[in-house]
Design a protein that fits this description.
This protein has about 60 residues and is mainly alpha-helical. It is built from 4 helices and no strands. The protein is elongated, with a radius of gyration of 13 Å. Keywords: Membrane, Transmembrane, Transmembrane helix.
């Protein structure tokens, strides 16, 4: 789950950059298919937080 949390955190940053037109044509394509996430990348970051919390809860030591 930590891997999923890390991937979602990176995607949040990419959606933030795409929403502010900082990554060129890739950002246009990202916002075309995931417009809601370009408008509010915090949703993806919250998902990353939930995945990290879930990973901490289910980890076996």
């Amino acid at each position: 789950m930590y891997f999923v949390a890390a991937v979602l955190a990176v995607l949040s940053g990419l959606f933030y950059a795409a929403g502010h037109h900082q990554i060129g044509s890739l950002g246009v394509t990202m916002c075309q298919y995931g417009g809601m996430f370009c408008d509010s990348p915090v949703l993806v970051l919250v998902g990353a937080g939930f995945a990290a919390a879930w990973g901490m809860l289910v980890s076996v030591r």
